[in-house]
Fold this protein.
Amino acid sequence: MADTVSERAKERRPEMSGHKGIPKGVVLGKDGKPCRTCASFRDWAAMTRKNTGSTAPTTSSAAAAAGAATATPPIDKPPEDCPADVETLGRGTWTFLHTLSATYPSHATPNQQSDMRAFLMLFAKLYPCWNCAQDFQAWMQKGGNEPRVRGRGEFGTWMCEAHNEVNRKLGKKEFDCRRWEERWRTGWGD
Ligand code: FAD
């Protein structure tokens, strides 16, 4: 029985636990089925084979050749009216979270601080990509990473550091946290 957040996560990550028939990048949900909001559209489509545009069975070589000529390249982004994948969900959520810090009072009252701490705890628990949520909770619980919510300045910087933690995990470029306010509150001034 797994007793830590990361051990529980490993139990449901097929790429870590060696599940057969489920491609890397697709993660199982708590119901044991592939989790759509935990995977990119690309990985999800690879699994469901609905994204290649050229895999429909053909009955003749002429039809196969025609299919190859008109094959549409795989689509990386979900159409706008499709359920969110991990990236669409992430972008929208970061917009919300950074805007939340940008509109936070510069000096928060004790009540506002405890509301924000409570929100962040619940957010990290309920975020609908469960493996993202578990890693985020684990990061928040590490010493030195507790939410800093006394006012906008430190909260915005904390949120930027939280986002950079995910950027690092995904191999993305880190953001310069001295500039979070230009990106999310004042604009770049150009
Ligand atoms: P995003 O990372 O979504 O960033 C949006 C914009 O924010 C950028 O264009 C940039 O202008 C700005 N920005 C970037 N970094 C910072 C920063 N540090 N501070 C301020 N502004 C910044 N995806 C996974 O595949 N696996 C995960 O485990 C995972 N965990 C996540 C956990 C949380 C809590 C959230 C909210 C999202 C998570 N995601 C995860 C999604 C992931 O972070 C991205 O949102 C997604 O990959 C889309 O990335 P993007 O390149 O479009 O830009």
User: Anything to note?
Assistant: The radius of gyration is 21 Å.
